[in-house]
Amino acid sequence: MWKKNRDVNALIEGLRRVYPRAACALHFKNPLELLVATILSAQCTDERVNKVTPDLFNKYRQAGDYAQAPLPQLEKEVKSTGFYRNKAKSIHGMARMLVDRFGGEVPRSMDELIQLPGVARKTANVVLGTAFGIADGIVVDTHVIRLSERLGLSKEKTPEKIEKDLMAQVSQKDWIWFAHALTTHGRQVCKARNPLCPRCPVRKECPNPVFP
Question: Which of 46, 87, 136, 141 is catalytic?
């Protein structure tokens, strides 16, 4: 049964002690690279994306490079990330819009970012927070969805409603770090199938331990 965490501050401080420098696992050097990598990360591990992007980033340096690339070629280059046709189409369309509407530069606002093909609120939050340091919202990925329920932070099922619950409980200055901390904790400890509850550093603050 879902239980609400009544001491969110203690949970946050516990995560901060363990993951004080939690950061995005995707490798990138500029906002465009992060945007492309985040699109590729949908239903794919960051580890796999990081294996694909070095060659991709070396070949495509600007938005115009992606926009001019033949779509079948781009599909082949991102194939190992899965759902490669949709991802290549999104990257191609995103790049064309960057060139046509934004002077080839990645915009710095949520309203503008979500206009881009393949970019929904989660991807926009990743780019705004990680590339620009703008806390417009909280990234809600699969790890954040799972941990938000387990840690008693939200009983909602959709990313939009979960994000709203998290934003109401976490100080805005911590939004960017908090999402990275939850994701890191989800990968290392609070795993989907076999959570390591006995060694969890925030076990005392967890109202829904899988293994009490």
Answer: 141
